[in-house]
Structures are given as structure tokens and as C-alpha cells.
Write a structure and sequence with these properties.
With 157 residues, this protein is an alpha+beta fold. The protein is built from five helices and five strands; from the N terminus they run ββαβββαααα. A five-stranded mixed sheet has the order 2-1-5-3-4, covered by helices on one side. The longest helix is centred in the last third of the chain and has 19 residues. The radius of gyration is 16 Å and the shape is globular. The termini are far apart.
């Protein structure tokens, strides 16, 4: 089946099998930030934005993205760069495998709720897998980023 979509602001058209997962499609297009983790829609490593909403690409068929907008971390470099540094500063990227999924989900959270509470952060990111750091580093990084963002806004930057 032929599909066409906007992938990271570029029009992409390709012939795909009807059972091809969106995860496999975006990786075939060079978007390697999208990872295969659990293959059961439980780990968050494969998160992409479909029409600006986070979805698990391991449980979404590529044909469902036909005519739609798909964004991976490669398409959010500016938005992700500043925030990602806070995760790294907290030692939360020991192996780095989970970082793209965490960052995608954190960006989705910030878009929905610019200043979430600690409990809201934990709830929103509860589906993300990290075997290295036990999630505390990511939480510290998010909280530090939110403090930085508030201070920056108060200064009028």
C-alpha cells in the first residue's frame, strides 16, 4: 500500500506492507531515536507524535499515519535540546537508550501542562522504561528544568 505523510516537516511517500508498524517505518526513514523496547506498548521507548499527540509507534500501523503529521525526536531538536541537558546533568542518561522516549513524553507533558506538579510528572511518565537509573534522575532533571524555565520567564527572556 502506498502511504504519504509529513515526517518531521518533510513529505514522505512510500510503499509499505499493510501490517508494517509505524516504528519500523520511521526507522526505515532514518529516525533512529525511535526505539524498540518491549513490543507490548508498555515502555514508552517508541513514542512519536501523531498529529502532535504522543502515540506508541510499536502498536500503531504505518498506514494509520497516511495523510497525517508524524514527529520524532529528530524533528524536535530545538525544543528538546535545552531540556535534554537537564536530564544529562542529573546523571539520568547512563546508557541513553530510554532518553528519546522520556524526552518525547516530557515535551508532550509540558505542552499539556507547562508547570506540572511532581505527582503529575510521575503519573504522566509512569509508562516509560528505564533500567539504569530508577527514574529519580529523570524526575530531578524535569524539576530542575521547570525551575529554570520559571526563572527565565520571570526575567522576561
Amino acid at each position: 500500500m502506498k502511504i504519504s505523510m509529513m515526517l518531521n516537516e518533510k513529505k514522505v511517500t512510500a510503499e509499505v506492507d499493510v501490517d508494517m508498524l509505524l516504528l519500523d517505518f520511521v526507522r526505515s526513514q532514518g529516525c533512529y531515536s525511535v526505539k524498540r523496547g518491549c513490543e507490548t506498548a508498555n515502555c514508552g521507548l517508541c513514542t512519536v507524535f501523531l498529529d502532535d499527540k504522543p502515540v506508541l509507534s510499536c502498536s500503531t500501523l504505518a498506514v494509520r499515519a497516511d495523510g497525517r503529521k508524524v514527529t520524532t525526536l529528530e524533528g524536535l531538536q530545538e525544543e528538546a535540546e535545552e531540556f535534554g541537558a537537564f536530564i544529562a546533568d542529573q546523571g539520568a542518561e547512563q546508557c541513553g537508550f530510554c532518553n528519546p522516549g522520556f524526552i518525547m513524553n516530557a515535551i508532550a507533558l509540558f505542552r499539556e501542562n507547562p508547570y506540572p506538579s511532581e505527582e503529575e510528572i510521575k503519573e504522566y511518565l509512569s509508562g516509560n522504561l528505564c533500567r539504569c537509573s530508577g527514574y529519580e534522575g529523570q524526575l530531578r532533571g524535569i524539576l530542575a528544568f521547570l525551575e529554570y524555565k520559571k526563572a527565565k520567564e520571570q526575567k522576561g527572556e
